[in-house]
Design a protein that fits this description.
By secondary structure, the protein is of the alpha/beta class. It has one domain: Rossmann fold. 38% of the residues lie in helices and 13% in strands. A four-stranded parallel beta sheet has the order 1-6-5-2. The protein has a two-stranded antiparallel ribbon with strand order 3-4. The longest helix has 15 residues. The structure holds zinc ion (ZN) (2 copies). One zinc ion binds next to helix 4.
Length: 266
Amino acid sequence: MPPGILARLAAGDFYNRRMLLGLWTSVRQLLLPAHCAACGASAPVERRLPLCERCGETLAKLIATEHCPLCGRNAGPYTSGPEGCYFCREYPVRFDAAVRVGPYEDPLRRLILRCKKERRAEIGQMLGRLLAERLALAPWADLVDVIVPVPLHWTRRLGRGFNQAEVLAHALARAICRKARRRLARVRPTPHQTGLPSSDRHENVRGAFAVRRGAAALEGKRVLLVDDVMTSGTTMDECTRALKKAGARDVYVAVVATADYDDPWA
Ligand SMILES: [Zn+2]
Ligand SMILES: [Zn+2]
């Protein structure tokens, strides 16, 4: 600790903000050496996102990739427009529009997995803030009335200790000065979608979601549905079905990443 700081603190010089910030940074560096939240390499403590240079650059490239404004999947200039991409023309989605941070690739994939499997809520909060930045670019962003996380069945929530979609939804809501509400419930446990073909994924989640009691507030509202990863879109479709049945006017989707069917980890 630089000499004199204790004496100045003791003398009541609590308003020297620079001094206190410098002290806090030194203590933090001492106690918590900064590591990249994605790959674990050392990272500069002052960075806005706790990522090393390499992961930060790769993440910026992922964020810059185009996505379809309707279904959120990877899209190029010739495969996507206001009417959607090849995928959503072939398999129409129930929701009205979608945003994502990027495709399900490292370092985004690692961040999502660490948040979920290691229960790292602070990573979820960081991803939620990134999602809020992407949401701000959507032409419908200001129309959103309610932010709703995709629910886990209570048995899985109990086992995992937290629902990553809720962490994301709350962080996103805070960033845009709104509230996230648990308006949906997963009324039956569903096996993981991982590895299931598209047709089975539909069957797997059909009727799995319902609005919670007291969700009459959804009537005529524009809902933003939040989750970490979207693969086939069937979970979001089923949630949309339940929300629209309860009177929601529009349902928009915000996910951290969209994955391809053949991704074994999605
Ligand atoms: Zn890294
Ligand atoms: Zn599409």
